[in-house]
Design brief:
The chain is α/β, with parallel strands linked by helices. It is built from six helices and nine strands; from the N terminus they run βαβαβαβαβαββαββ. The protein is globular.
């Protein structure tokens, strides 16, 4: 059984999809701990509702690496093998990325490399402002850059006439949830192999 740790700063909607898939028996995995840098993040509440350990860690006044070392200590104590960043509003230190190389997945609400670096609704707003006909999401392993790591999976979403930030966000989140669940399965089965910038899916 794959042991997952989640780092979240917001509502954790995608995490709920993972929890549901686990409870349906679709994923042979468990979320051992959810860590947030925001005390009132709804992701922590979701965790508590499902008897998952929920930890708030204060980030104020701490250097990035100092905070990340505290996070790592909790992840290691809980035997975490895969880290999911779900609406995590912090950049990771090089130390943390090196320690968990190819074990940290981040979901981004655009088809990378387009619209990299932004977060949440800002990304959807930029996409609509630009007049794109297609959006989507990207799941990638985390490296030192902002949304620059090797891409695991992408899913496109059409943009309709009269699309709003909220309607686009809802469609993209549905796509995010599909690819996260597929990728967790592949990771658990050791079917993801990183070669430079490419992630090979082994048969």
């Amino acid at each position: 059984m794959l042991n997952i740790g989640v780092l979240a700063s917001t509502r954790g909607t995608d995490m709920q999809a993972v929890i549901d898939a686990i409870e349906r028996g679709e994923l042979d995995a468990k979320i051992s701990v959810v860590i947030s840098n925001k005390k009132d993040a709804y992701a922590l509440e979701r965790a508590r509702k499902h008897n998952i350990k929920a930890v708030f860690l204060e980030a104020k006044g701490k250097e990035r690496e100092e905070f990340d070392r505290e996070v790592a200590k909790i992840l290691d104590e809980n035997g975490v093998e895969l880290i999911l960043l779900i609406g995590y509003m912090r950049y990771l230190s090089k130390w943390f990325v090196d320690k968990y190389r190819n074990k940290i997945m981040n979901i981004h609400p655009s088809l990378l490399p387009a619209f990299a670096g932004g977060m949440d609704k800002n990304v959807h707003a930029e996409i609509l402002k630009y007049g794109c006909k297609v959006s989507g999401c990207t799941l990638h392993f985390v490296d030192e850059g902002a949304d620059t790591g090797p891409i695991i999976a992408q899913k496109a979403v059409p943009i309709e006439e009269g699309e709003t930030v909220d309607s686009l966000k809802e469609k993209v989140q549905k796509a995010e949830q599909e690819i996260i669940i597929k990728a967790i399965k592949l990771f658990a089965e050791n079917k993801l192999k990183v070669e430079g910038r490419r992630v090979k899916i082994l048969q």
